[in-house]
Specification:
The chain is an all-alpha fold and about 90 residues long. The chain contains four helices and no strands.
């Protein structure tokens, strides 16, 4: 098991507000193991996407020899792979 899934599973059990947020956005009850996977995916994707978009917006990729859209697509694929979604 992904260690974050284990930690977020505990978070779901310990904090009713987190469980309700996951239920609202996924339709899954907090006790469903898929809820912890969904929460982990959301929390993992957030900094990945935020970092890539922020760096591109600030012009940090200029002159690096790649298209930022390609980097973003690869990061999305990596996230999907890590949760066996691709």
């Amino acid at each position: 098991m992904n260690p974050l899934v284990g930690e977020f599973s505990h978070w779901l059990r310990a904090d009713a507000a987190v469980g309700e947020w996951v239920r609202q956005w996924t339709g899954l009850p907090p006790e469903d193991p898929a809820s912890a996977v969904a929460l982990t995916g959301a929390i993992t994707a957030w900094p990945q996407m935020h970092g890539t978009v922020s760096l591109e917006s600030a012009g940090q990729f200029t002159g690096m020899g790649h298209r930022p859209a390609t980097l973003l697509a690869v990061q999305i694929d990596m996230l999907a792979d890590s949760f066996q979604l691709a």
